[in-house]
């Protein structure tokens, strides 16, 4: 809610927000967590019409429709986003995207276990691309651009594992980078920055044209 706030208030807001979100999805939302969350916001100097309504109106007078309206507006106002733990279905789009990216990995003759995980060591509850037991770079949140984000994350972890650039332009032997183009994710050659090689998932089969065992690092 506020930059620089940490510790118990953050945990309390997170726990209350999760309770409200779960109750909104499953039914049975009552006023107690809403009022507690509104109190915390007011204590932090975040006063809104919703927090004031929750604190000023008798809880007994709030209808089910009122609670849903106030709960949804309250969560939206604090920028709440459900985690993969709260909404496992949010992971599905990333897993499906990884299947597409995996076609490019296999097209290069790269073998090894590739999967999407939500590790318990990430305090943010992000999803990570894991290759051969390695996670590298940054995790992906529920709001990530699925195919572009997964392609970028996969490139980083695969290069960390194989110790060379991947994928590589079959024409220029330069690294590619994943970028959005006209609403789709593509692999673009880093040689001139404008040469699009293929959509993500559509790289041609075949190993890289020249072996460069000593070269490693980002494709850009």
Describe the structure in your own words.
Helix content is 40%, strand content 12%. The protein starts with 7 loop residues before the first helix and ends in a 21-residue tail after the last strand. The strands form 2 sheets. Strands 1-2-3 form a 3-stranded antiparallel sheet, with helices on one face. A 3-stranded antiparallel sheet has the order 4-5-6, with helices on one face. With 220 residues, the protein is α+β, with helices and mostly antiparallel strands. It contains 6 helices and 6 strands; from the N terminus they run H-H-H-H-H-E-E-E-H-E-E-E.
Number of helices: 6
How many structural units, i.e. domains? 2
| Helix and strand sequence | HHHHHEEEHEEE
Query: Level of helix content?
Result: 40-55%
What integer value in Å does the Rg equal?
23 Å
Spatial shape: elongated
Mean pLDDT: 81
Low-confidence stretches: 1-7, 208-220
Largest sheet: 3 strands, antiparallel
Strand content: 5-15%
Q: How far is the N terminus from the C terminus? A: 35 Å
**SS content category:** alpha+beta
Read across the widest sheet, the strand sequence of neighbours is 1-2-3
Q: Count all strands and give the number.
A: 6
């Amino acid at each position: 809610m506020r930059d620089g706030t940490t510790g118990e208030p953050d945990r309390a807001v997170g726990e209350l927000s999760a309770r409200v979100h779960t109750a909104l999805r499953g039914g049975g939302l009552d006023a107690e967590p809403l009022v507690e969350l509104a109190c915390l916001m007011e204590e932090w100097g975040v006063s809104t019409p919703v927090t004031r309504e929750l604190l000023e109106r008798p809880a007994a007078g709030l209808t089910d429709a009122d609670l849903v309206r106030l709960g949804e507006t309250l969560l939206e106002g604090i920028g709440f986003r459900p985690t993969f733990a709260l909404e496992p279905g949010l992971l599905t789009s990333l897993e499906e995207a990884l299947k597409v990216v995996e076609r490019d990995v296999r097209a290069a003759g790269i073998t090894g276990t590739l999967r999407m995980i939500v590790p318990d060591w990430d305090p943010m509850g992000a999803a990570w691309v894991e290759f051969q037991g390695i996670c590298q770079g940054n995790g992906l949140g529920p709001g990530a651009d699925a195919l572009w984000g997964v392609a970028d994350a996969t490139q980083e972890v695969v290069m960390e594992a194989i110790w060379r650039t991947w994928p590589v332009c079959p024409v220029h032997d330069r690294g590619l980078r994943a970028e959005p183009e006209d609403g789709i994710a593509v692999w673009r050659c880093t040689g001139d920055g404008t040469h699009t090689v293929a959509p993500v998932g559509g790289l041609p089969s075949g190993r890289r044209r020249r072996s460069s065992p000593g070269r490693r690092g980002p494709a850009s």
